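// run 5 | inverse folding | seed 20
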């Protein structure tokens, strides 16, 4: 064998270079491997990991209440009324089972297949990982009349498990303080937790979940009581979720402000072998598809075998019913999967032993047996539903027929717009001022508002890497527009061709011509509206561009402020105040163009930029300090090319905001509420947030 070699620093790579991390050391060394990140997502993941253990007790029928409290000092407390983590001595580890669960990776009751027949957490790392990443943790178990307790510091036990008293309660209490050495910021988002807990309450019938945000309390209260919310009267600080209807209630919640096509929500809950299947669906008068799938109460945003089984059975059942009842004529095509899913709100949930997920994130279910179980249970129950509810069945089939006709019209429109030449970049829109580079990685596409802004940006850009596409007025609101109508809009047609990705089922992100697509609209109400319309288009038809981080919003300045040759730009009113203060000027002392009958420029210039002159005693004129001038930009078209480059387009000096989707479900609801046809929810939103609006008079 060859001898150990030295690297550039003289260090020998030998047997003693191999480190063996013991206990929970690997977690603290590489926390991202276990919780995804050490940012906000990872922080909240810790709370959810402990909560999910309590939820699994409820899924097994051993608990019906879980309480999560955010306490002063970034402390979290999770309580359930389940069986309590066992405290007896573990045969293999020779220590308490509680200590084993809290300090050993891949240790838990979810591997023997009996303690938890169905569980969301499959890897047994939840409690131990959270313990390792916490400054301190306290585990309390109420079991058989006795109270047991053990404390830990950064994953290391401080003492053995001890019996510390008697109790009339039962269950487990985990209290922990996330470690500031690990997490970049210790700020809990109560809304993020509420959304998760609400979802879980729908998925586990008759489970009461309570979230208490007690951070406003002056100090941590006495926590002797297992469930102390009622005793301390914290109703005002709590949110309770409890649903008896399960997925039926969840579909009603999603469709609260929607116009339903079918009167009765379809719902089935049945076992197929060892797999529990629960499905609920309702069609609404819309074109969007909303499908939500879960496996063992874990969201599977990428779907999987259970969703495939549902889709297959849905298409087959509607085709069979339509032909059997003469709703589909002999010379007409069968419905496709896209046809039958248009306007559907569906939730598919399976609970099974040994669920197999694809990838670390559990985003997609891979268990083959789930497909047949879902297809069998749903197909039989949905066929019966259609027979027993003929009015609903006819309404559903009519909607699907409309979707089929629209699909054919959309295909014809798309084929006429997206011919081969256009996709290859040979017939790009005439309005597009393309860049010279053919490397998408360095190319940028600016979407600007109007010809004036287009002219300035074309002159001010870096022609090698920056392309400009001016948009005329407000584009079509695509929230409720089918593809054929959408592609009849010249502005949208130009944008689709410029991007190069095609659209709908022919979409191919690898053909994207610009890796930065930058929305650059004016800083006024119309500009904000155009920006919202563009984001709606990207969210509904180019979602992959958002997910990949290709969509940005430019932030042009609101003000140009200068004093003599000293020129500065302010992007907010707060920045303007700071610049004026630097110039030694009180903002209130500056007249605005609106206050005077004369002076100013089209862009809203305040005062002039000339120096004051006065005559001294000797008759000579002397110069005073220059006045401060302010120009308020109402639009990009008012900026000179060099100003636009310096403030908005120059990669070295500009500020871009990348558009990301943190919560797709909430984003979907927000777009629907703001851009959909239902007026009531939008009106309520405006009334609720009116006081927070900034009016640019």
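// decoded
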């Amino acid at each position: 064998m060859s001898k150990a070699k030295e690297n550039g620093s003289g260090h020998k790579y030998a047997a003693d270079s191999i480190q063996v991390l013991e206990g929970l050391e690997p977690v603290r060394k590489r926390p991202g491997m276990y919780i995804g990140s050490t940012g906000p997502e990872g922080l909240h993941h810790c709370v959810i990991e402990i909560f999910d253990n309590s939820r699994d007790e409820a899924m097994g029928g051993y608990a019906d209440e879980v309480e999560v409290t955010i306490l002063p000092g970034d402390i979290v407390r999770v309580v359930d009324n389940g069986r309590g983590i066992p405290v007896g001595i573990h045969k293999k580890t020779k220590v308490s089972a509680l200590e084993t669960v809290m300090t050993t990776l891949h240790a838990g009751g979810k591997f023997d297949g009996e303690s938890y027949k169905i569980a969301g957490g499959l890897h047994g790392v939840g409690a131990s990982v959270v313990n390792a990443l916490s400054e301190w943790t306290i585990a309390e178990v109420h079991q058989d009349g006795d109270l047991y307790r053990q404390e830990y510091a950064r994953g290391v036990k401080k003492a053995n498990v001890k019996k510390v008293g008697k109790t009339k309660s039962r269950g487990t209490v985990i209290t922990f303080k996330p470690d500031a050495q690990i997490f970049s910021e210790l700020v809990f988002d109560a809304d993020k937790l509420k959304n998760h807990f609400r979802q879980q309450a729908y998925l586990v019938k008759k489970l009461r979940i309570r979230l208490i945000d007690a951070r406003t309390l002056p100090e941590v209260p006495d926590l002797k009581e297992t469930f102390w919310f009622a005793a301390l009267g914290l109703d005002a600080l709590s949110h309770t979720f409890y649903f008896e209807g399960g997925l039926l209630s969840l579909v009603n919640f999603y469709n609260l402000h929607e116009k339903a096509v079918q009167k009765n929500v379809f719902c089935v809950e049945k076992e197929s072998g060892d797999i529990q299947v629960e499905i609920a669906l309702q069609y609404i008068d819309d074109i969007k598809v909303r499908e939500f799938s879960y496996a063992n109460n874990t969201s599977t945003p990428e779907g999987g075998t259970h969703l495939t089984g549902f889709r297959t059975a849905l298409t087959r059942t509607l085709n069979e019913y339509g032909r059997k009842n003469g709703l589909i004529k002999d010379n007409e095509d069968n419905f496709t999967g896209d046809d039958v899913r248009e306007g559907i709100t569906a939730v598919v949930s399976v609970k099974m032993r040994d669920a197999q997920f694809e990838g670390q994130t559990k985003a997609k279910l891979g268990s083959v047996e789930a497909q047949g179980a879902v297809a069998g249970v749903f197909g039989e129950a949905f066929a019966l539903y259609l027979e027993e509810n003929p009015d609903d069945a006819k309404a559903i089939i009519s909607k699907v027929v409309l979707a089929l006709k629209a699909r054919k019209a959309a295909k014809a429109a798309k084929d006429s717009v997206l011919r081969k030449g256009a996709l290859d970049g040979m017939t790009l829109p005439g309005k597009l001022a393309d860049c010279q580079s053919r490397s998408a990685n360095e190319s940028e596409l600016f979407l600007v508002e109007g010809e004036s802004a287009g002219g300035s940006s074309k002159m001010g850009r870096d022609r090698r890497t920056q392309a400009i596409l001016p948009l005329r007025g407000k584009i079509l609101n695509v929230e409720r527009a089918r593809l054929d109508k959408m592609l009849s809009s010249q502005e949208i047609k130009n944008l689709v061709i410029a991007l190069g990705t095609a659209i709908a089922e022919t979409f191919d992100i690898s053909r994207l011509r610009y890796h930065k697509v930058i929305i650059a609209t004016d800083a006024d109400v119309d500009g904000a509206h155009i920006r919202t319309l563009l984001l709606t288009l990207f969210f509904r038809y180019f979602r992959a561009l958002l997910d990949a981080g290709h969509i940005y919003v430019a932030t042009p300045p609101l003000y140009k402020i200068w004093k003599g040759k000293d020129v500065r730009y302010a992007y907010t009113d707060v920045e303007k105040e700071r610049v004026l203060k630097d110039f030694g000027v009180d903002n209130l002392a500056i007249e605005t163009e609106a206050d005077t009958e004369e002076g100013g420029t089209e862009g809203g210039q305040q005062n002039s930029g000339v120096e004051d002159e006065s005559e001294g005693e000797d008759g000579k004129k002397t110069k005073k300090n220059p006045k401060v001038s302010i120009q308020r930009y109402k639009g990009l078209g008012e900026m000179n090319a060099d100003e636009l480059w310096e403030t908005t387009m120059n990669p070295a000096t500009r500020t871009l905001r990348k558009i990301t989707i943190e919560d797709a479900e909430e984003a979907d609801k927000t777009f629907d509420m703001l851009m959909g046809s239902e007026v009531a929810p939008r009106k309520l939103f405006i009334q609720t947030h009116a006081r927070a609006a900034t009016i640019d008079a």
